[in-house]
Structure formats: structure tokens, C-alpha cells
Amino acid sequence: MEKREVIKLLGDYNWIVRSIEEANKEIEICKDTIDAARQLSAIDYSEEAVGGTSVMSDATYNAFQRVEEVSKSLEYWNKRLSELYSKRQLILSWLDMLDHEERMIIEFKNIKNMKWYMVASAMNYSERQCKRIGRKALEKITCPEMSRFLC
């Protein structure tokens, strides 16, 4: 993965976490809606059967259609949640491969979107040192197999 793609994905980390929470809420809503609609399963016997089959009442038919629609929505949210979890796991694996200093600088700069002078102040280093450590960390992330040989 290229450096700018890594930086973009790191910057999206907080959005990914919020989107995971949103997807989980949507999935719960879908499940509750499906459960509520499934409880409406009565067949209307007030009309005569046509062609030897029973006719579903409008409420039951509408509930069935609603379950179908919500099931599609549930499938979408489960797929989206899976993608978001994958992205979050990728970012966390990147952060795990870094030393403590590198991780803190990447978190401050790319995830918390702090300015370099703020990162330097938080780390008690100069801006130049923070930028150097940050570049080294990004190199580790973008090319992990080569980072062992560069250090």
C-alpha cells in the first residue's frame, strides 16, 4: 500500500470506529424489525380459498414484504460491518508493529490529526525528531518486510 493511502486510512480511523458503532445499531434495528414482523403470521380465513390455496391477509403479506426488505438491509449492514472491521484490524495491526514512540507519533499526527508542534510538545521532542520518527514509522507500515533491513 502506498504512503498516501496509509495516511488516508489512518486519518479515517475515528470515522471507521464511529461507522462500526452506527452499523451495529442499524443491525440491531433490522433484527428487531424482522422479529416484530415475523410475529404477524396469521392467515385470513374470512375469504374463501382461491385455487385450493389459502390467501394471506394484507397485514401478513405486508409484513412478509417488510421482512424481505429489512433482510436485504441487514445483509448490506453485515457486509459493511465486515469491511469496517477489516479496515480497523488493518490499522491496529499497523500500530502494533511500531515501537511505542512511533505509535504515539502516528496516533497523534494521523489519527488525532494534531499539528506537528503539538505532537512535539506531547512527546517532549523537537518537531524535526517527531517528523523523522513519523517518516520511519510510515516506512515500516508501507513496507514492513524491508523495515527490518533499514533499521
List the helices and strands and how they pair.
Layout: H1 3-11, H2 13-38, H3 58-96, H4 100-111, H5 116-123, H6 127-142, H7 144-150
Helix pairs in contact: 1-4, 2-3, 4-5, 4-6, 5-6, 6-7
Report on the architecture of this protein.
This protein has 151 residues and is mainly α. The protein is built from 7 helices and no strands. The radius of gyration is 26 Å and the shape is elongated. The mean pLDDT is 86.
Count of discrete structural domains: 2
**Span of the ends, CA to CA:** 20 Å
CATH class of the largest domain: Mainly Alpha
Kindly provide the radius of gyration, computed on alpha-carbon positions and rounded to a whole number of angstroms.
Answer: 26 Å
- SSE order, as H and E? HHHHHHH
How many beta strands in the DSSP annotation? 0
Treating each run of at least 4 consecutive H or I residues as one helix, how many helices? 7
Let me know the largest β-sheet. Answer: none
CATH level 3 topology of the largest domain: Helix Hairpins
Mean pLDDT level? 86
Characteristics:
2 domains, 77% helix, 151 residues, mainly alpha, Helix Hairpins, 7 helices
Brief sketch in words of this structure:
The protein is an all-alpha fold and 151 residues long.
